[in-house]
Amino acid sequence: MCESMGLFFTKDEDAIVAVLDINSGSVGGAIVLKNKNSLPLIVATSRRNYKLVSTPDGARLAREMLETLDLVCQDLQQKTGKRPEKVYCVMSTPWSHGELRSIKYEKSQEFQFTEAFAQKLIKKEIENFVIENAGLRHVMDKRITKVSLNGYVVDSPHGQSARTLTLDVFLSLSSQNIITDIEDRIHKTWKSRIAFTSQIFGDFMLVRDIFDAKNDFVIINIGAEITEVLLMKHDHLEGTAFFPYGTRNIIRAISVQLNKNVYETMSLFSLYGEDLLSPDSSTFIRAAVESAGDIWCSELRKLLADMSTSRHIPQSVFLIAPESMEAWIRSMITPKFFPEFTTAGREFSVIIPNREMLYNFCHYSDMADRDVPLSMKTIFINRV
């Protein structure tokens, strides 16, 4: 049985659930005691990375994702012996595609805003979204983010009358084939209900609610093959986007310049980041690292220019990145690299969600690793 995360959340009772983080470089999983009145308990965790290859291939990546998913589910079953009542799959690009859609409606006579009326408009928008994204037919998310009546944002629109309506809705899709394949793999281990949602909207909900981020902020989530970006302005989601350049693309770019294979390069990069190389070796690698970083910054600048019509991005930046690259990526999010998006060279406030920040929002058993991405997704799922 498959479910999508719909317009209005219904909070489950206390239950043993599984949370699966399915992204472009790994699959992570957790068995969780979901608690409606308290913090979730992460009972056990497992994470397995895909193989790092010099030339990525979409079909190969899909096969490896499913094989890795198999192993993670088996790991969790062996560690706990528990069958989760429900499995939550949190999907990132390339396994999902999400967009913020703006639906406009106008009549000469006043009309009343109701849930049924909103769902009718959203159903039509979903049909258009599916047509625009051939091959993606499974709807995962359909969530209202903002309602404007007669040009004014309204927090409680139900029952109110207006002549014009703008309805901002976050929609996400996935391939039905991918969804079916994932369900089949999960059901080999657990005969549980399965729900799907997108990572980027989960990031938004978590940052806004857990970290008490108000008004304006940007989230940059750099994955293995993809960087996803979310922009919030005036306390509302303004846009989501991504570009196909992540941590593994950075490693590949460095490996080409150093004329080394990707595994040697990854090892050297780790040593470079920890300042464990000799001065000569560091100098040798620095140029290649900076060149790869310039590519990532250039892609991010182009994306931000498309997302932000005001040519300004919020000063608060939430950065989600592999721990081994956090410091290096953080060093690039400065006015030096993004002068066109800052005010008078003002520094960005870069916040990296870490283990210490998350301790206040979930508990861990002795079998559970303090896996930051899994912890974030668990906290999000516990709240919906």
Overall geometry? globular
β-strand amount: 25-35%
What are the low-pLDDT stretches, counting only 5+ consecutive residues below 50?
none
CATH superfamily (homologous) name of the largest domain: ATPase, nucleotide binding domain
CATH topology of the largest domain: Nucleotidyltransferase, domain 5
The percent of residues in helical segments reads: 25-40%
- Main sheet? 7 strands, mixed
Helix tally equals: 10
Number of domains: 3
Q: Given the helix and strand composition, which structural class is it?
A: alpha/beta
Architecture of the largest domain, according to CATH? 2-Layer Sandwich
Q: What is the number of beta strands?
A: 16
Distance between the termini: 19 Å
Order of neighbouring strands in the sheet with most strands: 1-10-5-2-3-4-16
Radius of gyration: 22 Å
Summarize model confidence as the mean pLDDT. 90
Plain-language structure description:
This protein has 384 residues and is α/β, with parallel strands linked by helices. The protein folds into 3 domains: 2-95 and 176-208 and 357-383, Nucleotidyltransferase, domain 5 (2-Layer Sandwich); 98-172, Dna Ligase, domain 1 (2-Layer Sandwich), CATH 3.30.1490; 212-352, Nucleotidyltransferase, domain 5. Helix content is 37%, strand content 30%. The protein has helices at 58-80, 115-132, 176-189, 199-209, 247-258, 262-273, 279-307, 326-332, 355-358, 372-383, and strands at 2-4, 15-22, 26-34, 41-49, 86-91, 97-112, 138-149, 152-153, 161-174, 193-198, 217-222, 227-233, 236-243, 316-320, 349-351, 363-364. It has a 7-stranded mixed beta sheet. A 5-stranded mixed beta sheet has the order 13-12-11-14-15, with helices on both faces. Strands 6-9-7-8 form a 4-stranded antiparallel beta sheet. Strand 3 and strand 4 form a beta hairpin. The chain starts with a strand and ends with a helix.
